Amino acid sequence: MTADDEPPTLHDDRLxxxxxxxxxxxxxxxxxxxxxxRDDEFDEEGEPLTEGARALSEARHDVFIAGFxxxxxxxxxxxxxxxxxxxxxxxxxxxxQDVAATLRRVTPLRPTQIDLENEMAEVISGAMYWQPPHGAxxxxxxxxxxxxxxxxxxxxxxxxxxxxxxxxxxxxxQWALAxxxxxxxxxxxxxxxxxxGPVDSTAAPAITLTDLYPPLEGDVARLSWGLDEWLADVLxxxxxxxxxxxxxxxxxxxxxxxxxxxxxLWSSTGTWPDGTLIGVExxxxxxxxxxxxxxxxxxxxxxxxxxIRGPEDWADLCRRYPLDVTAQRRQxxxxxxxxxxxxxxxxxxxxxxxxxxxxxxLAGYLRTAGAVIDVTEGRLGEEAETVPTAGNTDDxxxxxxxGWHPDTTFWLNNVIEAVTEVAEWRYDGDADRxxxx
Length: 437
Fold this sequence. Notes:
Layout: H1 17-22, H2 24-34, H3 51-73, H4 96-103, H5 113-125, H6 135-141, H7 143-148, H8 150-158, E1 175-179, E2 197-198, H9 227-247, E3 267-269, H10 278-281, E4 291-299, E5 305-308, H11 311-320, E6 322-324, H12 326-337, E7 342-346, H13 348-351, E8 357-360, H14 362-368, E9 373-377, E10 396-399, E11 408-411, E12 416-428, E13 433-436
Parallel strand pairs: 5-8, 7-10
Antiparallel strand pairs: 1-4, 2-12, 3-11, 4-12, 6-7, 8-11, 9-10, 12-13
């Protein structure tokens, strides 16, 4: 093992039970694990064989019905397939109190690393920031259900599996990904033409950022953005949305929902303990991707990293480098959070003056993604009639971590010296796992 391969020292800010139960993604993870069971306690038709399995089956039923009713009550287009003689459940048939009661009869099981990775993948695939949370997530947020989930969160913490999730960025183990996304774009990124294995940077042409993107055809929007271009686009969009708001303040206009830096930057991910790339398993807004090329990066040793360990780290970036996006995010983030008010994101063009990379680790993601993050009391930025903050639910400025894949680092400056290795990863449907090669 070389010095670059040695993992960084862990911070003593391990995830707690309260961290998991207080955050949307943490609750979803615990909720999903709580509903897992042992296959040998069910027969081939899925019928429970033990009292413990029967309690779990009842909990799953209640969660399904309560989630369906929550979705229906918020206007989601949901349907239930009914058997002969069955009738669709009605409002109040199964409540959050009922779900909490059945969960309290379920015995928490000790999850394995595979259980944790699989359930985390389910959590990430269901993360959405452009519409209300799924009904099951709304049920999990109810105070009585959160308390019923406490024993399951305690069991998860007791395994120690989450201890490494607080690790800062590992500079010797960063991989950039290029996807085979033929269903959405024609042609493969140039890196798919590269041989696999170690790259001799003295003999082979350097792999560039554009090698990770599919080729452009015809009049296609640019995939690569610089930070200055990105800032100009955000400011222009905000101005246009403010003008539209001034003309019709009651019109519900959707907009961009993510708070990441632009796509035209290098980004990278690390690995699970078994070496599987975290970034191939945990993908927000996934299109069913099944093949990727991974490029191992050599970073400049003096790269400056902003670690997002929790909401306060994100709020600090927003306070120091605020970029007002209230007009263009007001409706879409209201749908996701039920909050009206002033919204900001970090101005990545200014963050780049202090930091070369921004890393949202696994623990940081669980603590922050999807949660309304208070930035400050009062308002950051100018007062103007065209800023659509009338009818706020509060007088704070807030932000949202949205669109970040867990354990992702965006590189704001040129600190990547070379690509040292290229590897292929593919999804094995039979094994239900990503495998290398």
